[in-house]
Amino acid sequence: MTLYQPFLDYAIALLQQRLDLQPYLIPEGFEAKSAIVGKGKHQDEVLTTSYGYQATKLRQIRAAHVQGGNSLQVLNFVIFPHLNYDLPFFGADLVTLPGGHLIALDMQPLFRDDLSYQAKYTQPILPIFETYQQHLPWGGDFPEEARPFFSPAFLWTRPQQTEVVETHVFTAFQAYLQAYLNFVEQAEPVTNSSSLRAIEQAQLRYLRYRAEKDPARGMFTRFYGSQWTEEYIHGFLFDLERKLAMATTE
Ligand code: DBV
């Protein structure tokens, strides 16, 4: 069992239990990809598997799971709501590299500085954030330009011990996902056209940032080449622009 497999299993089981979960098409060639990396005795297989679902209010629920031995484990799990809901994104970036663990967990806001948005989608999460932050202190250095995409309840931490990932990070992940699904349950469709435009702009801003700055681009390019990597990023991981372009040419 690899470090983040229980996170993935938990998430899929909970989604199945709470949503009308349907599959989301994963483009051919991206369901599973493997490469042998390193030399001589240090060779390791790096396997990347992808998961995709959708639900009534959620356009894309997707995960990328990278397994390459004890010092290379990644679970990147993001939920993109449909464009007629003001729901935040659920964003989890759980990363284990030779240098240690790096954990990012948040409900990423569409409108960071809007106080009524914060009251709706951040205030209710703060007690959960505070509970876990005691065990998961702020992780330090963080790209300034990414700040607008995170909420005040952003858990950002670099645990020294794997055991902390297996315990506190795992329970925090469960609590955030449960709280997110409560928001989803309560969400009502937005019909006002200026609000709809604002949501689409905010989703595109987020998506463009993530596709452009994907911190995994270097790693994937080394393992699988740049053609596979760019197609994976734009055609699956962050695919909103492609989907919108397809919808207007149909
Ligand atoms: N990150 C992804 C995807 C990944 C992934 C799709 C499938 O968005 C993995 C893989 N994240 C990943 C890896 C690293 C990070 C780091 C492999 C380590 C990169 C390295 O050190 O070489 C949150 N993830 C990070 C960092 C942040 C995040 C802040 C540190 C990057 C840095 O210091 O420059 N999640 C990430 C992020 C956003 C987010 C940047 C922006 C909105 O939601």
From TrEMBL:
<keyword id="KW-0560">Oxidoreductase</keyword>
<dbReference type="InterPro" id="IPR022827">
    <property type="entry name" value="Phycoerythrobilin_Fdx_Rdtase"/>
</dbReference>
<comment type="function">
    <text>Catalyzes the two-electron reduction of the C2 and C3(1) diene system of 15,16-dihydrobiliverdin.</text>
</comment>
<comment type="similarity">
    <text>Belongs to the HY2 family.</text>
</comment>
<dbReference type="InterPro" id="IPR009249">
    <property type="entry name" value="Ferredoxin-dep_bilin_Rdtase"/>
</dbReference>
<dbReference type="Pfam" id="PF05996">
    <property type="entry name" value="Fe_bilin_red"/>
</dbReference>
<dbReference type="GO" id="GO:0050618">
    <property type="term" value="F:phycoerythrobilin:ferredoxin oxidoreductase activity"/>
</dbReference>
<dbReference type="GO" id="GO:0010024">
    <property type="term" value="P:phytochromobilin biosynthetic process"/>
</dbReference>
<protein>
    <recommendedName>
        <fullName>Phycoerythrobilin:ferredoxin oxidoreductase</fullName>
        <ecNumber>1.3.7.3</ecNumber>
    </recommendedName>
</protein>
<dbReference type="GO" id="GO:0050897">
    <property type="term" value="F:cobalt ion binding"/>
</dbReference>
